[in-house]
Structure formats: C-alpha cells, structure tokens
Amino acid sequence: MKAFQNTKQSRIIAAVAAAMVLLAGISFLAYRFQVFGAVKSGQDRNRSQNQALLLGDASTDTSALQVYWFDGSTVKVRTIYDSAAEKELIKHIHGFPLKEADEQALHSLEPPFYGIWISDTQGWDLTLAWSGGVWLKNDGSVYYGDMDFPSIWERMEGDEDTMTVLQFPNAGRLARYNPLFMLKSEQVIPDCADGVSLSVEAAADGTLTARIHNNSREEFTYGEYYSLQKQIDGTWYTLPIMEGNVGFPDIACILPAGESTEKQYNLDIFGPLEPGSYKLVVEGLGAVFTIY
User: Fold this and answer.
1) What are the tens digits of pLDDT across the range 97-109?
2) Could you tell me the pTM of the whole model?
3) Which of 63, 115, 262, 276 is deepest in the core (most CB within 10 A)?
C-alpha cells in the first residue's frame, strides 16, 4: 500500500513538472512572437517613415524622374521616363533606414553630390540632395542614410544633359554651407547700358524696391525674371533660389522712352541673406546694394 502511494505521488509530481515545462514553453513562444511582432512592426514603421520623409508622395505615373551628379564643376542630369523604373529606384531608396540629423551635418559635405527631382501628386517639386551619407530634402529636413549612389548613377539609363549648379536640387540651401553652389559671374554687369539704368531705392523686410530709368529714345522691354548676386572676396556669384516651385510670369513689360518705373522684387526666394554687398540683375543691368 505504501509503495502504491509513493508511485501515485511520483506520477502527480511528474505531471505537475510536465505542465510547468509546457507553460514555460508557451510563455517563451508567446514572448518570441511578441518580440518578432514588435521588430517587424518597427521595421514596417521605419519603412513607412522613410517613404513619407523622402519620396513617398512622388507621382511616378505622371512625372519623369531626374537624377543629378555634381563633381564640383559640372552638373549632369539623367532623366527617366519609364514609370516602372522610377518606382524601382524609389523603392530602392526607401529600403535604407534613416536617422534624423542636424543642419550642421551639411557643413562637412564634399563632392560628388547627387540629387533627385520628381513631381509630387499635387504637381509640386519634390527634391533630394545626397552626399557622403547625408540627405537634404527641399523642406530643409536633414537625415543620415547611407547608400551606394555612385553605382545607381553608373547603372542609370536615360537622356543626359548638362546644367548649371543653380539648377542642382536644393542648391539654395546647400549654398549656405558650400560656395560651390554659387555660380561665378563671368562678366561685369553694368548699372547702365544704351541709355537705360537700374538703381535700388530701398531694401527692407525681404523686399527690394528698384527703379528702371529709360533715358534712351526707344522703348525698353523687360520681363519679370530677375536674379541676385553676392560679392565674395571681390568676385560676384549668382545665388541659387532657396525654394523650389518659384516661377516667373512669361510676360513682357514696356517702358516708353524718357520714362521710369518702380518695381519690387522678393528677396526671400534666395533665403536668409547675410550682411554684405549684393547686386540685383534685371535684363543685363545690375544695381548694387548693401545689407548691413
């Protein structure tokens, strides 16, 4: 009878032990699935975040995609018109994890630079610049995210053109940290030519007030386009526009002989201007002014 009781107790102990092992196994599996789910969820969030931060709103079905290369002196651009190829490139870019960075990261960038332009679903420009693992988006956000951009450029097939550095994606923001993104003026732009002169009357709150004088005997025709130069160490450089989506109306204005007109120009499109000497350029005429 005693032996039977011992055997019964042994079976109860064994059963309890087996149940504890089973519960431990279930708990481990549950924990493992929970961790796996959290990791996968985090990966999905990161992938979604990358897509939203960089080119998530790109309109690959209605817009071409351009990839830029800049070695410090020459800017080349290749254009892709195939929607499938555009999507594949964007998918490749979104596959790399991103980490938010400070603007100070832009100080260390050196050639070569790479850039991307595509239109978003609303028709606005969506641009990226990349160098040495640092991304710069046209809204000013900066990220760390390394990728083999040189290989992408080499493998790309598409129409190739040469442009000025002023047309490089986000050149306006990059010019604040690297003078390579300013275009050196190869000619002296006078303030008066053929009886027509340009002068600056005031500059305040991001608006420049200028006057065009037509002292010639003929009508003077001018457009809405203008540019801005900055003097650095005695040399004039044309500044790139800070933001994209800046357009100039394609219209002609006529100034009769012997008359003058006052015009206002928006300086904010060139971003924050540091103290120094600047030159407004309109139709081959330049007017120098100083920001203190």
Assistant:
1) 899 999 999 998 9
2) 0.78
3) 115
